[in-house]
Amino acid sequence: MIPTDRMAAVDANAAALGVPRKQLMESSGNAVAREVRAVAEPGAAVALVCGRGNNGGDALVAARFLDEYDVAVHLLGRPETIRTDIARENWAALANTDVPTETVTDSRDFALAAPDADAPDVIVDAMLGSGIAGGLREPEQTAAAAINASDATVIAVDVPSGIDADTGDLTGESGSTAVEADRVVTFHDEKPGLGSLDAAVTVADIGIPAAAERYTGPGDLLGLGRDPDSHKGDNGEVLVVGGGPYTGAPTLAALAALRAGADLVRVACPESVAGAVQGFSPNLIVRPLPGDRVGSAHVERVASLAAGVDTVVLGPGLGDGDGVREFVAEFLTAYDGRAVVDADALRVVPGVDTDAELVCTPHQGELVDMGGETASDPDERAELVREFAADLGHTLLVKGAVDVIADGDGVRLNRTGNPGMTVGGTGDVLAGTVGALAAVTDPFRAAAVGAYVVGRAGDAAAEANGAGLVATDLPDRLPEAMRDE
Ligand SMILES: NC(=O)C1=CN([C@@H]2O[C@H](COP(=O)(O)OP(=O)(O)OC[C@H]3O[C@@H](n4cnc5c(N)ncnc54)[C@H](O)[C@@H]3O)[C@@H](O)[C@H]2O)[C@@H](O)CC1
Ligand SMILES: [K+]
Questions:
Q1: Which residue is closest in CA terms to ligand 1's atom 27?
Q2: Of 428, 389, 421, the residue nearest 405 (C-alpha)
Q3: CA-CA distance, 467 to 421, in Å (whole number)?
Q4: 260 vs 117, 238, 311, 317, 429, CA distance in Å?
Q5: Closest to 436 (Cα-Cα) out of 265, 249, 185, 202
Q6: Which residue from 54, 76, 141, 158 has its CB within 8 A of the most atoms of ligand 1, so it is best to mutate?
Q7: Which BP terms in the Gene Ontology apply to this protein (predicted)?
Q8: Cα–ligand 2 centroid distance for 130 (angstroms)
């Protein structure tokens, strides 16, 4: 089962892997033609009713696979207004052939067959698919009514036009028109809303490589961009809790969170290091905690700071000195928001009873310290991480040459990044990045996207600096790494 937004991500990831959208459209069209052959003998009249997006494009391809039928293609709208290059190219390919095509610009002119021709035996509804917004407009609405009134077998491409593939509900107001399909041929995987329809659903394999789903890719970034109308605070506020023996770690995490899109980042750290943290960047807001180590005495203060933000990044540079574990345990017990837990704070997580939603970011060694298991076979390792995440009830991002991201439900792998990133501090950059992302999306996606973009930033830094990569190279490269292309 794959929801529409995830399908769009997987589609973009497939393109990045070298299987472009036009190739998928060819397979989709072929699958639509197979469905036609399953319901009608050669020679039957087939009307393909096409919209101007890629849903229509799928049927424009299908027309080329249906030579043995009496095919008629209806394009709803002018060819110049076809919305995608690949659909337009497939229209042009048809226009050069003998397939009868007709364009409908006025709903009053819409007819499924010419007055002297036979009514169609099969209608392919390729008006609208996953790109639909709102109820059917004209001429789609008139066309849908005509399709519903006909006696033909109706095959919907991807989803019946006027139906939301994620919910199975009408996209328009209650009582609005949608195509009533006998059959639906959908692509790659089932869609959540199709099961509730009174139609036979076929899922067609269109050659999307499994890696497009299994590995992170540029598609995972789709829809994460900032809303241009957003206000300060809408893109997330992050509190980094760290420092003591180390100053660089909380600073790197905080700078990364800012570069990954957070509006406001505060650092709560022992006052002994507050000046040094602040000295790194005037963009950071520092909240000093009395003393030179965090401890139980600071729980109340940190909890009140945490109450005002979207996510907490807990751990960078805390060390494992006296009182640190107690602080982490007491804070997490009381906290019920979202947090990224890294470094020395990790080992506390398995023993703590918390309502917080955590993303834990261990490397292999830290995973084992937490009680998790690892394996050399990547598939086995992924499954072990998924099981451990399910046991913990939290999201895990286990760092390695291939990162494993898992919660109880799913696993994603990330293979961006390079050996140069084993230098100190890159983990802090990752924790801060995931912290910023977890303020605007769910923990699993935040972890997957965080691993992907930090690896990408590291790859860009390695290209520029070769073996001399240092963690401070990474935050400034995050904005570029977060572009969805
Ligand atoms: N990964 C994918 O996303 C895949 C997509 N494929 C096909 O591509 C389709 C999605 O294509 P598109 O994203 O181009 O979208 P559609 O073809 O569903 O819609 C295209 C356009 O229709 C217009 N429109 C929106 N709402 C409307 C309404 N209520 N009334 C009238 N017009 C309206 C909009 O201008 C929109 O851009 C899928 O349903 C599927 O058929 C498949 O070929 C396989 C893979
Ligand atoms: K459709």
A1: 132
A2: 389
A3: 9
A4: 61, 11, 13, 20, 10
A5: 265
A6: 54
A7: nicotinamide nucleotide metabolic process
A8: 8
198, part of any domain = yes
Q: Is 90 exceeded by the pLDDT of residue 344?
A: yes
Its pTM stands at 0.93
Q: What residues make up the domain containing 143? A: 4-214
CATH number of the domain that 128 lies in?
3.40.50.10260
Q: What's the total number of domains in the chain?
A: 2
The answer to the question of whether 188 is labelled as a binding residue is: no
Instruction: Flag whether 319 is in a domain.
Output: yes
Ligand 2 centre to CA of 103 (Å) is 18
Q: What percent of the chain has pLDDT over 90?
A: 91
Q: Is 176 marked within a binding site?
A: no
Is residue 444 one of the residues assigned to a domain?
yes
Cα of 38 to ligand 1 centre, how many Å? Answer: 25
Query: pLDDT-derived band of residue 442, with 50, 70 and 90 as boundaries?
Result: very high
Whether residues 273 and 194 share a domain: the answer is no
Q: For residues 416 and 419, give the distance between their C-alpha atoms in angstroms, rounded to a whole number.
A: 10
What residue owns the CA closest to ligand 1's atom 15? 131
Q: Specify whether 184 is located in the same domain as 315.
A: no
Tell me which DSSP letter residue 270 carries. E
Q: Is 27 left (phi over 0), alpha (psi -120 to 50) or beta?
A: alpha
Do residues 316 and 253 make contact, with C-beta atoms less than 8 angstroms apart?
Answer: yes
Same domain, 15 and 110: yes
Å from CA of 56 to ligand 1 middle: 8
* pLDDT for the residue 226: 65
Ligand 1 atom, smallest distance to 28 CA: 43
Residue 466 has pLDDT above 90, yes or no: no
Whether residue 317 is annotated as binding a ligand: the answer is yes
Say what percent of the chain tops pLDDT 70. 98
- The tens digit of pLDDT for each residue in 30-83 reads 999 999 999 999 999 999 999 999 999 999 999 999 999 999 999 999 999 999
Peptide bond into 120 cis (omega under 30): no
Task: Give a yes or no: residue 344 inside a domain.
Answer: yes
Q: 44 and 179: one domain?
A: yes
- Tell me how far apart the alpha carbons of residues 346 and 194 are, in angstroms, rounded to a whole number: 42
Best of 58, 132, 155, 191 to mutate for ligand 1, by most ligand atoms within 8 A of CB? 132
ipTM: 0.97
438/409 same-domain check = yes
* 152 in the same domain as 37: yes
Region 265-276: what's the mean pLDDT? 96
361 and 395 share a domain? Answer: yes
User: Does 210 lie in the same domain as 66?
Assistant: yes
Span from the CA of 50 to the centroid of ligand 2 (angstroms): 8
